[in-house]
Each structure stands twice: as structure tokens, then as C-alpha cells.
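Quick check before the chapter quiz. The format below is the same one you will see on the exam, so make sure you can read both the input and the output lines.
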Amino acid sequence: MLPVYTPSSPTSPTSQQAASRSEHVVSLQGNKGHKWLSLFVNSRAATSASLPLLFQGDSVTGRVELDLLKEETIKAIVISVLAGTTAVGQEESRFLQIDNQLWPPSTPNTKGPSSQKIKGRHSWSFTMGLPTTVPVTEPNGRHGQYPLPPTFSERASPVYIDYRVKVVVRRGMFKIDQPLTLSFGYLPVAYPEAPSTLRRMAYNEGSLLVGPEGDPEGWKVCETVKEKGTLFAVRAVEVKCSLAIATPLCYAIGTPIPIEITLRSSDKQALDLLATPEALRVHLVRSMTTGSDAMDDDAPRRSNSHFLESVGDAYFWIQPESKLEGNLDGAPQEEGERGRLLRGEIEVQKTLKPSFKFPRFTMRYMIQMLPLKAPGFTPATSSDKAHPG
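Here is the expected output.
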């Protein structure tokens, strides 16, 4: 399973009014703490103390202020939007660069100083639209267009994705250019397809969701797995497990993923022991792949380039046994089998980044079910080896 995660959609995702909620500023200081160069950037962040945040479709807007106490020669002032991926121990691989010269003016009618000698206070506003896709050369040499990936920066991460606004004051020959940089967060926006009609009705009425047996269009039912093991070190038992995940497989951050699990067995004692919320171990797992094979789903995964991390745990509650009618995946029910149904949810944390595929760095999510675990039950397979699905 590779669900795609999307941020909860704002009222107007491309509104520049929303993208100008907070103003962020960084400055360069000269002698005696005088701020001679300041960069202001507008963003959707809740406060100016937070990292600036922009969504897909936003423009980078703001202004540059220059305050010189004495006349100086300035060759040019350039504002840029830059983005790139950086693997640990390697140089940045840049995939986005947008430049805009603020001074000298590109047209004679532009207001501002007309020579390279500048003194006093000056201000230049800027607006630079962010593209939705960028051309990138893949490791195999082919060229392709890819959606902008989200900002990604975590402690001990093997790869980082950084977006930043940079203003450079170019002072001319034999003098050092003065750069000023402000990083910002970028978040793509995606919208899932509408859920099934019965699911929408349940949400609108505040009623229980109809399960896969009554709403097959609203669920993705995984292949049934057979859990074999030994009960109380005395007899071998077998329990059939079926996992169903609500569709479409695209969820907003901060919302739950509805899931269902059915367990069937001809051994009532095994069901009583294993068909409990405590015995089920279902997780949301983040998969990060780096390197030249990051976008190849069939490439072998190596420990130094493929990283798995559990980012969410499911919690369950028991449904009445009478609600079960056959197996979720349509497999025939064997004579003497009993069944138990448990419903649950996995919360998608607000801090998670959406899935994306990008050259040399890919992030995916999957729902992973580990073997059942309960006192008195010894699984035939490793208790930490996930079931395929």
C-alpha cells in the first residue's frame, strides 16, 4: 500500500492574501549594529517567528531594504529563489533557481537610483511565482519534468530538501559580495477523489461507516494472510487475517485512516486470545529511498539507501460478531470457522510530509501489519517480520 498524503486544503490555497499572513525578516548589520540590508518575505506561517511557509501555487513576495550611511558603489542587487537536494557528505544538487535583478533598474522608467553610487534608504518590492514542476536530469541522463517536492529537514536525515530566498549585493571588482538568505518551507497541495457514496452519507449523518461487505467501493481489501503458531506451547493453530483500508488511498494530514481487520479460525480459544486490540500491530510506515535508484520501484533496497520508520500506530475496537458475513476478500469460509471483526484508525500526524517521487530522493508511505502478538501465542514466523501487502 502506498497512500499519498496531502495537507488539509485551506479555504483558498492559491490566495496571495493567505500567503501574506506573516512577514519574516532577516538583516545584515554593520558597525555599531546598524542594519544596512534587510530582506522581508511574506508567508502563510501562523507567526513571524515560525519558518516561512508557502503552498503550491503561491508566489514568493516581499521587499529588500537598503540603508547606507555613506555613499557606496553597488554594482547590482539581485533577489533569487533557490531550491536543491543535499545528501550527507555531498554538494547540493540544485533543481530551482529564479533570479530577479532589483537594481540597477532594467528599464529607464523604473524609479530608483540611476547610477552605481548609492546612499541613504531605498526599498525594492519583488514577486516571483513558484512553478509547479521543474526540469531535472535523472541519474541515468534522461530529462524529465517533476513536481516540486516538499521541504524536508530532519535531524540525522540522509537527505535534505531546502528552499530559500537570497539577496546578493554585488559591490564590484576586488570587493566581496554580500549575500543574505532566508529559508522557507514549501508544501505541495493535492486533493483526493471523493469517497464512496455510503461513506459520504455516514460522514454527513455522523453514523458508523459501512464496512467492505456493504460498501465494496469504499475499501481496499488486502489479500488474506494465514497466521500460524502454537497456543500455550501445546497445539498448533491457524488464524486467517484480512485487512481493509478506506479508499481513496489519499488522506489529509491530521485526519484518521479508517481500517478494518477480520480474524477467522476454527479454534475459538485462539480467537478469544488473538482477536483483541492488544494483539493487533498495524502501523503507518514511512519509506525513504535515496540514490540513483530512488524512483525505481523494482530496484533492490539496500540498508544504506533505504530507510523505514514507523510514523503512526493503529488503535482498534471490537465490533459485534453478528456483523460478520463471509470473508472480506471473497474467499470461501470453511466449515466450523468463527469470525471476529475489529475496526480501527491510524492518525496521520500533522508533521508528516506528503509522498513524492523525485530524482535521488523518494518518499512513500505504507500500512504494515505485523504478526499477532499475545501471551500464550508463539507465531511460526518472526514476530517483527511484516506480512506482505
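If your answer matched, good. The radius of gyration is 28 Å.
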